[in-house]
């Protein structure tokens, strides 16, 4: 079966022949009917293809959601297990454990700025965006240099590293 492009081209050629008085109307009518049937069948098949592709897209969307849910569960499980290990090591007074395959250590994280009260942060430490967000880099630099800024302080947490 010819492709849709060829069929529409044939349809246009036959339509041009209609103006030719030497052409038999019956032959032109039969040719038009044949091409129209072929175009109908071809577009019907293409419509079925579209439905199949749409169904595949929907199945992929559903699978993406299911896999994202599974990933979130796995990530939460990792966080819980790391927290469990860290708590156990801290309770036992251990900072580092070496095994044949891993070194597990509790290390200090880089100091992080904690904004206690956004309304008390001076404007010079605010970065304007769609909403007001504190400029934590500027706050961190100022706090580290000894500035006292009401509404913010530096805090250093700990986290578990597995290498």
Would you mind describing this structure in some detail?
The structure is a single chain. The chain has 163 residues and is α+β, with helices and mostly antiparallel strands. The chain has two domains: 4-90; 95-162, no CATH class. Helix content is 56%, strand content 17%. The protein contains three helices and seven strands, in the order ααβββββαββ. A three-stranded antiparallel β-sheet has the order 1-2-7, with helices on one face. Strands 3-6 form a two-stranded antiparallel sheet. It has a two-stranded antiparallel sheet with strand order 4-5. A hairpin with a 4-residue loop joins β1 and β2 (103-108). α1 runs antiparallel to α2 (25-92). It is elongated, with a radius of gyration of 36 Å.
Give the arrangement of secondary structure elements.
Blueprint: H1 4-17, H2 25-92, E1 96-98, E2 103-108, E3 112-115, E4 126-128, E5 132-134, H3 136-144, E6 152-155, E7 158-162
Antiparallel strand pairs: 1-2, 2-7, 3-6, 4-5
Helix pairs in contact: 1-2
Summarize the structure.
The two termini are 62 Å apart.
Number of separate structural domains: 2
Report the uncertain regions: none
What share of residues are in beta strands?
A: 15-25%
Note the total helix count. 3
Overall pLDDT? 85
Radius of gyration: 36 Å
Tally the beta strands: 7
Structural class: alpha+beta
Helix content: 55-70%
* Strand order in space, largest sheet: 1-2-7
Distance between the termini: 62 Å
| Main pleated sheet | 3 strands, antiparallel
Write down the secondary-structure element order: HHEEEEEHEE
Global geometry = elongated
